[in-house]
Design a protein that fits this description.
It is a single chain. A hairpin with a 4-residue loop joins strand 6 and strand 7. About 3% of the residues have low confidence. By secondary structure, this protein is α+β, with helices and mostly antiparallel strands. The chain is 52% helix and 21% strand. The longest helix is centred in the N-terminal third of the chain and has 49 residues. It has 3 domains: 151 residues, Beta-Lactamase; 85 residues; 141 residues, Histidine kinase-like ATPase, C-terminal domain (Heat Shock Protein 90), CATH 3.30.565.
């Protein structure tokens, strides 16, 4: 199978941090450029306004006419931008130019007094203008005199670039520092994963005990899932070891007995004794077959404990399936169903519950006293799947060992039926209950009931 390659966590986080820094840098640079242009415009607009006010202040009325005595201070202000060209114009009440260049554009119409800033051409370059109006109301002269001063944009653009360049330099330094700290933070954040990897690498292949390492809350679910997975593997491995051990221990004696009896039957010349030996061989073969069936059933139940999906199940359907499966077995006709009118719902694996119920019913048929009742009942927040016979039940000494593996207390028993039922009950969050009732002895699976 081809290996599926994927980006490392460090690469993904670094890419995400880089994308955030790039996007943030673009936003900050755009803001810096806008701020630089605005700051440069405001700074040089003040110079234009100062120059216009100096010119306006120098206007005097002589012999009924407005006279402009251009002040040197106005040009000194504008000289702060030595690479820019300037243009000025002073117009009288009739709009005629009193001094300056007729090419200076007039401001757009505007209501109210005060200076007006506007854009216009200054020769073959774009320019910025301010218009300032001074009103006269004298006997020999009355009306507004407008002063217009313009300047090219070279100094403004240079100042905006300087501001943006400074912001970009600061941003680049901050980005490098943030990237470095982010990379160190990534390495620190991934250190628990490296510890987890080293802990797994140092482990013996047969060690499936839970890993106990301090982990951040984000990685703790991964460790929990890993421990759960190893727990399931451990249960499956334990089941396999038990199956192998049980097979080696439990099958050796009956197989040896069958071999010996078969050898005796082969050598026996007396027909009657040979028939008895063959009958014993058949009985032991049936018992061995029953033991193998129970051992495989138990292995299957343990396997399904961790692999079979759980679903909402009506225990009445489980009981009905058990009844139909045992109806044609020897003594199965003596079983009676005892089901409540409404659903009794639990969450579980139907196949495992059916197998456990079969063992309870088969045990009652084999060792109990008729009548045998197979049924379902509610018991508070629990539900019971039970098999009940009319007998007094086993002795107290036998009760203590019931439910253990290979605890057979009757001839021909495998000793696994109740052990299977106990393991199914425990895997469903319940328990196997054994004890006398008013009308007999009951073995039951007690399970949590849904909707209780």
């Amino acid at each position: 199978m081809a290996e599926t390659r994927s980006w490392s966590l460090k690469s993904r986080v670094a890419l995400a941090v880089g994308a955030v820094l790039l996007l943030g840098g673009i936003v900050v640079l755009s803001v810096a450029l806008a701020y630089g242009r605005q700051a440069a415009r405001e700074a040089y607009d003040r110079l234009l306004l100062g120059a216009a006010r100096d010119i306006a202040a120098s206007i005097t009325i002589r012999d009924g006419a407005a006279v402009v005595d251009m002040p040197a201070s106005a040009f000194q202000m504008l000289a702060l931008a030595p690479e820019d060209r300037i243009r000025y114009r002073v117009t009288g009440p009739d709009g005629a130019t009193l001094t300056g260049s007729d090419a200076a554009p007039a401001p757009p119409p505007r209501e109210g007094a005060g200076p007006v800033f506007y854009d216009g051409d200054l020769g073959d370059e774009p320019g910025r203008y301010v218009a300032l109006t001074r009103r006269f109301a004298e006997r020999s002269f009355s009306g507004p005199v407008r002063v217009m001063v313009g300047q090219t944009l070279r100094a403004r653009q240079a100042l905006a670039r300087d501001i943006a360049g400074g912001a970009l330099a600061v941003l680049a330094a901050a980005g490098i520092a943030i990237g470095l700290f982010a990379w160190l933070a990534i390495l620190s954040a991934l250190r628990p994963l490296r510890r987890l990897g080293r802990a797994l690498a140092r482990r013996d292949p047969t060690d499936l005990t839970p890993i106990t390492l301090p982990m951040p809350s984000e990685i703790a679910p991964v460790l929990g899932a890993l421990n759960g997975f190893m727990g399931r593997l451990d249960r499956q491995a334990m089941a396999s070891r038990n199956l192998i051990g049980d097979a080696a221990h439990q099958l050796r004696t009956p197989v040896a007995a069958i071999r010996a009896q078969a050898q005796d039957a082969q050598d026996e010349t007396d027909p009657g004794r040979r028939a008895r030996l063959l009958s014993r061989i058949h009985a032991r073969s049936v018992g061995l077959s029953r033991l193998l069936d129970r051992m495989l059933d138990r292995a299957m139940i343990i396997h399904r404990t961790d692999t079979a999906p759980r679903a909402a199940i009506d225990l009445r359907d489980v009981a009905l399936e058990i009844y139909e499966a045992l109806e044609d077995t020897p003594g199965g006709a003596a079983i009676r169903l005892d089901l409540p009118p409404g659903p009794v719902v639990v969450r579980g694996d139907a196949l495992s519950l059916v197998e456990a119920g079969k063992n309870l019913a088969a045990n009652a048929l084999a060792h109990g006293r008729a009548p045998i009742r197979l049924g379902v009942a509610r018991d508070g927040a629990a539900a019971r799947l039970f098999a009940r016979d009319a007998g007094p039940g086993p002795a107290a000494a036998i009760m203590d060992g019931m439910g253990a593996r290979f605890a057979a207390h009757a001839p021909g028993g495998a000793g696994l039926g109740l052990a299977i039922a106990r393991e199914v009950a425990q895997s469903h969050g319940g328990a196997l209950s054994l004890g006398p009732r008013a009308d007999g002895f009951e073995a039951a699976l007690s399970l949590p009931r849904l909707g209780a």
